[in-house]
Structures are given as structure tokens and as C-alpha cells.
Amino acid sequence: MVALAPLTRWLHALSWPMARAQAGRQLLALLAIALGVALAYGVQLLNDSALGEFEAAQRQITGTPDLVLAAEGGGPLSDEWPARLAALPGVQQSAPVLEASLSLLPGRQGLRLLGLDALQSAQFRPALLPQPFVDQAADAGPLAVLAPDAVYLNEAALRLLPSPRPSHISLRWTAQGQTRSASLRLAGRVASTGAPLAVMDIAGAQALLGRLGELDRVELRLAEGATAPPLSAGLKAVPAEAGRGEDLAALSRAYRVNLSVLALMALFTGAFLVFAVQSLAAAQRQPQLALLGVLGLSARERFALVLAEAALLGLLGSALGLLGGAGLAALGLQLLDGDLGSGLLGGGGQSRLHIEPLPLLIYGGLGLAVAMLGAIGPAWQARHMAPAQVLKGLGAELLPAPPVWLGPLLLLAGAGLAWLPAWGGLPLAAYLAMLCMLLGGLLCVPPLVRALGALLPGQRHAGLLLLRQRAREGAGEAAQLLAGVLVALALSVAMLVMIYSFRASLTHWLQQMLPADLYVRSTLRDAGGARAPLSENFVTAVAEGRGLPALRDWQAQRSRRLALPATVPGAAAVSISLMARPIPDENRLPLVGTLGQVPAPGLQALYINEALRDQLGLQPGARLSLPGLGPQGQALDGFVRGVWRDYSRQSGALMMPLADYRRFSGDMAVNELFLWLREGANSEQVQSRLRALAGDAQDIELAASGDLLALSLHIFDRSFAVSYWLQAIALGLGLVGVAATLSAQVLARRREFGLLRHLGFSRAQLRTLLLAETAVQTTAGALLGLGLGLAISAVLVFVVNPQSFHWSMDLALPTARLAALLAATLAATLAAALLTAWLAGRRSLGQDLLRAVREDW
């Protein structure tokens, strides 16, 4: 154990002068650590802050009830229930709630409406207590909040208004298949943050929505120490709505973890840059360390000195990285709505940074750990050197070579780990598999360099003989030289292939799921927030082709939410999306795997998405019952005919033929229309005619297939744009590592180069030899990086994405882009080597070499 006081003196007397002399290299290592920590911590902080803001807004809306009760069948509750529940023993307070989703005109933005009893809900939700505007508060009486035409908006809803503060606002919604609209008096505001929200008295909301005597839920506050009362028939307990934050966390967790792993790529690459800088420093300081050893500095103390230098570098880099990460997160919250463009957190929020001590410690510790790991090799060299031999010029020993079998073993271990199941919904084993593959690939560099060296021409040319000998004897140094570039190149190839495969699969999926020329749906939403059905008159007019001579064919789709019973006793029901559409040919669906055969006569064929398959453990041929689908609440007995890809959601969904759905349920409503136009038809004119058919009774949304495809791919590209920057940063750090490591190797070989100068080699020939060696090593690294990248891309495509998002895809290789990436990496690496050889040659390949040889004598 080395005492702290002597170590501090050594750092001041020995390390600080060295750091000043090598300020440029030390700054590069510092930048590598700081940049890696900043990227990783910024991604974590940005997403946690946005998610925390969402959960805070949900808690403001939900309040703090002890128990939330709703109708057992999912329908409305009678408004007699609050008084009946309040009379139960142990119930201190009951508050009724009515909720609906409306559109705020003229922009038709979505607005959530809550009908509350202000007298009862004030203690549950203080953030939703109506606050009259200041200039109206003097004229408003104490019961003004109960006015049936008064509405109160939160800050997000007020920002949607066309003028700073109009006297009235216009709303539109759908109820029982009919479009309704109303004008309400804007009386004040509520303090709740989050998405646009309107609050009004519950009696006014019931009259507005045509739901007199109905409630959506009742929230209870229990007396201290009281237990939940027994539930009456027709009631069920439901979790407080703030639990949606947990659902959202699960929804975005995979995206955030995958992006964080990608951000850590830069930090991982930075570890090799730290190793290169420390190796270079150790190579330059070998005589100094040897002299200190002769003067009494023990091997353990030399080891501690090198590690202490790395620790200081890691602490400073981590501190700068944490500050930079907070700045990046703050900028991301302003520009990207807290989800880096993915859309998983909804966007549009005014999120604030939520800095917690635990992430600070974790990411700061990561930076310190990276610096320490990068210095282990040089510290080992300093500890195991023979000081007397080094002072004679004979102690420039390399790190011990790992066994040849270790690299292939790690590659095999990575291949095995890749197929382990997810843990906690995350592909942690797959991440470990990728790490094993990267480390195994690094250990395979020396054998590959030796193999390439053996392929060089065998004629007796001095330069070629030296090149072949160097490839055989110095192959161990190639792994140090190419570590950063190899890691960055492999991960860049993997991400490039994965993103290209995902984009190609998404394009094909959109073409299968959206085969028509034009799509129509309502802009309104029903009371539950789902997309409202189109009016019957409008659907009939389109079906009859009134004024639509360009219409060649059409299809309808019915979409709705459905609750499936949980497969685990005591768990909550599973809410899924049901889509009923014509399926004339099931082969046109984006199916994966085999089709299931009907297990018993009379069962309905159902098609489930991959998320529902994984959620309920269903496979083709399994039976699946859909409760409450019939007009009298009958259950539909079906079976899983096939599994289809669904890139539009991560939650469960199923599809069935529209004719079968209508025959069983009697539901003739239509949510979307798919329209095929005649060849040469003008899409704009057809859309104009459709709007005329809808008139004022229906707000419709129209989109051409080309526009939907372009919009979807634009969102996709925006979501993955940040990954390209992370790859470029990692490659840049890897190239700097090549320069730093090559400098260290040149310094360590000064006596070798001096001997070659004595034998007649010129400085230009030495530079050419050094560049040729680097070319052989870089070629080996590029080939190995390509192979590793393809292997890791297979893990990403076939393991990480299905386990994280329940999305499968087909592997597609962007050959032109891969060739361009390899060529650019080779060129940049050779350019870095050439520049380094020239700069190092000004001193290390000059006259000093002659003195270096004389020192050996």
C-alpha cells in the first residue's frame, strides 16, 4: 500500500512537468473521457428529465387518492356512487371524475377535458383547482367555479389559443357516432403542467358531453389506518393514472438504454485513447522511471504513480463530462423535446433538468474507471521493468501477449451469449455478447497481421524482408495501435447495417400495410381518447362514389381498444388495439414465421403482432378468446393464425377480417377509409371533393400514400440522426488513438531505427517502412472490423431489436455505404499514420537515432 503523502509529492514533482511537456496529448485523453461521459450522461439525464416531468404532470392530474374505482365492464358509473361510497366505514372522502378527449378549434389540437367536483377534488388535486383570471376575480363570487359554461385551461392549452386570451373557446368532439361542438367561456386557468388540459365543473361537463348522471371513476380518500372497503357488485379497483408514467417508462426504456449503449461507444473508444496516451508517456519516461527505480522507487510505487496520474485524468475528465452532459441535456430538452427525436415521450413539453446524485456518481465513476483501465497496461510495464537494463537501453519490454486461443474463445462466448433471453425486458446478455466479440476481435488482430505478413512477396528485398519480419514479431503491437479504430469501425458497421435493415424493412412494411393511394380518418377522438369513427353519411357517400369519378376502389377499417384477461392471476387486464380490415390475401400481410392451423372447428382466425405474442406467450395455432366483443358482451373464440410485424406500436395489437368482425359484433362503424384512384387521377382534386362531402359535420384528415411514406421515413431518419454523430465521434477518437499509439511505438523503436540508419536506410525509407507496416496492420484491422461489425449487426437485428422493441426485421447490407466507410477509415488511418510518422520523424528518425545506438554501446 502506497502512502498518500509521498504519492502527492511524486505527482507534483514528476507527473506535473511531464503533463506540461505533453499538454497536447494529455488534452486529447482528457477530451476523450469528457466527451464520452458527456454523451452518455446527457442521454440519460435528458430522458430521465422528460420522463420525470411527464410523471409529475400525471400526478398533478391524478392527485393522491388511496383508491380509484371504476365500472367492472369498463362502462360509465352512475353519479349515485360517490354518496354511497362516502357512507362506507373508513371512507373519508369521495370525488367523482368525468373525462373526455376533445379538439380545440380552429387548429383542431387535442385537448383533455376533466369534469371535477371542485369542492371535493381540491384536496386530491390542488394543481387542478380553478383560478379565475385576476381582472375577473373581483367580480366572481365564491361559487363562480361551478358555472356550467366556465372552463379553465392549463398553460399548455392557453398556448394553443389563437389570441392571448379570448373570451370564449370552441370545442368539437364525437359522441355516439355524432359530431358535436360547443363554445365555452374561458374563465381562468389551472396550475397543472403537462399536456393541454381543460377543467370544468362536473355538472357542466355532464351536460356538455350529453352524459347526465354518468361518471368515469370515483376516487376515495380513506381514514388513517382504515383498510379498503369491500367492493360492491359492478365495481373494480383500478390503479391511479399516475401509473401511466411507469407504462411510458417501460415504453421508452429500450430506446433510452440502446441509445445510452451507443453513447457509451465513445467512452469505450476513449479508453483505448487513454491507453495510447499513457503508453506514449511510459515509452518516453522509461529512462526516468528506471532511474527512479535505481534510486529506490519500488515497483509497487511506480505502478501506483502511473495509476494515480490516470485517476487524476479520469476525475478531471469526468467532471468536465458531467458538466457537458448537463449542457447537452438542457439543449436537447429545448430542441428535441426530451426524447432525441424518437417521439416516445410525446414531445411538446417544457421539461426541466432533473439532476439526481446516483446518475452523477455512476457516470462520473464510469469516466474514472475508463481512465484507470486505460492505464493498467502502462502501469504494468512500469512495475515490471528492470531499471538497470532499461538504463542500458535493453528494457523496452512489451506487455505480455495473451494466449492465442483467448480471442476465438471470446468470439464463441459472444455468439453463445447473444441468444440468451432478455432480462427485465432488456437484452443485457446481447450487450455482453457484443463486448465479448469486440474484445475477442482485438485479440485476433495479431494472428491476422501475421497471416497478412506471410502473404507478402518473398523476394529478397531488404524492405520486404523487414516488413515480413515486423509483421511476425511485432504483431502484438497492432492490437494496441488499432484498438480504438477497430472498436469504432466494428460498431459503426453494425449500426449502419442495422439502421439500413430497419429502414428497408420499414419501407416494405409501409407498402404492405398502406397499399392504397389515399387514406381518410377523423381528426376527432371519442371520450376514451381513441380515434372517433367517421360519420355514416360520409362513409355512404364515399362508398357510392358521389362526385368521385376518379375513385376505383375502397376499403374500410374499424379500430378500437379491447381488454384481454391477464394470463397471470391477479395481474391487470391487457389493453390491446383491435383492427378489423378486409384481408383478401393473408400473404400480403407482413407475416413472420409459420401460419397456425385451426385447433378446433368454428374458431375465428386472428393475426397478432409480435408485441402481443411476446406479452402473452402466444404462438401460431394457440387459442385466443376476445371477451365482450359481441353485442351482448359475448366472447369471440378464435385462434392465432399468424404473427405480423407492427412498427407503429410497441404494445399488443391484433387484426381480423372486417366481415367476420361485423358479423359477430354487429358494429358497423368505420374509423379509416382506404381509397384507390384511377390511373392519372388528380389526388388534390379527390381530396378537395372528400372535404366537401364531409362538410362541417365531420373534421377529416387526408393523406396520400407517398406523403405517409415520406413522413414515416423522415421521422425514422430524425430518430437515428444522433447515432451518426456518435459514430463519427468514436471514429475520430479512434484515429487520434492511432496517432498517439504510433508515436509511442516510434519512440520505443528509436534504437531499432538507429541501427537501420547505420546500415544505410534513409529517413524517407524509414518513414515508408513505418507507413507500410501501418498499412498491413490497418488492412487487418479493417477486415476484422468489417467481420466483427457484420456479426454485431446480426445480434442487433435478430436479438436486440426483437427483445427491446418486439420488432423483427430482415438483414440487408448497404454494400456501397460499407465500402465507402471502409475506404474512408483506411484512408483516414493511413493519413494519421503518415502525419504521425512525419512529425515523429523530425526527432525520432533524425540524428538522435545515431546517439541512441551509441547509448547501447
UniProtKB/TrEMBL annotation:
<feature type="transmembrane region" description="Helical">
    <location>
        <begin position="401"/>
        <end position="422"/>
    </location>
</feature>
<keyword id="KW-0812">Transmembrane</keyword>
<feature type="domain" description="ABC3 transporter permease C-terminal">
    <location>
        <begin position="261"/>
        <end position="387"/>
    </location>
</feature>
<feature type="transmembrane region" description="Helical">
    <location>
        <begin position="303"/>
        <end position="336"/>
    </location>
</feature>
<feature type="domain" description="ABC3 transporter permease C-terminal">
    <location>
        <begin position="728"/>
        <end position="843"/>
    </location>
</feature>
<protein>
    <submittedName>
        <fullName>Putative ABC transport system permease protein</fullName>
    </submittedName>
</protein>
<feature type="transmembrane region" description="Helical">
    <location>
        <begin position="818"/>
        <end position="841"/>
    </location>
</feature>
<dbReference type="InterPro" id="IPR038766">
    <property type="entry name" value="Membrane_comp_ABC_pdt"/>
</dbReference>
<dbReference type="GO" id="GO:0005886">
    <property type="term" value="C:plasma membrane"/>
</dbReference>
<feature type="transmembrane region" description="Helical">
    <location>
        <begin position="360"/>
        <end position="380"/>
    </location>
</feature>
<dbReference type="Pfam" id="PF02687">
    <property type="entry name" value="FtsX"/>
</dbReference>
<dbReference type="InterPro" id="IPR003838">
    <property type="entry name" value="ABC3_permease_C"/>
</dbReference>
<feature type="transmembrane region" description="Helical">
    <location>
        <begin position="428"/>
        <end position="457"/>
    </location>
</feature>
<feature type="transmembrane region" description="Helical">
    <location>
        <begin position="724"/>
        <end position="748"/>
    </location>
</feature>
<keyword id="KW-1133">Transmembrane helix</keyword>
<feature type="transmembrane region" description="Helical">
    <location>
        <begin position="261"/>
        <end position="282"/>
    </location>
</feature>
<feature type="transmembrane region" description="Helical">
    <location>
        <begin position="478"/>
        <end position="502"/>
    </location>
</feature>
<feature type="transmembrane region" description="Helical">
    <location>
        <begin position="769"/>
        <end position="798"/>
    </location>
</feature>
<keyword id="KW-1003">Cell membrane</keyword>
<keyword id="KW-0472">Membrane</keyword>
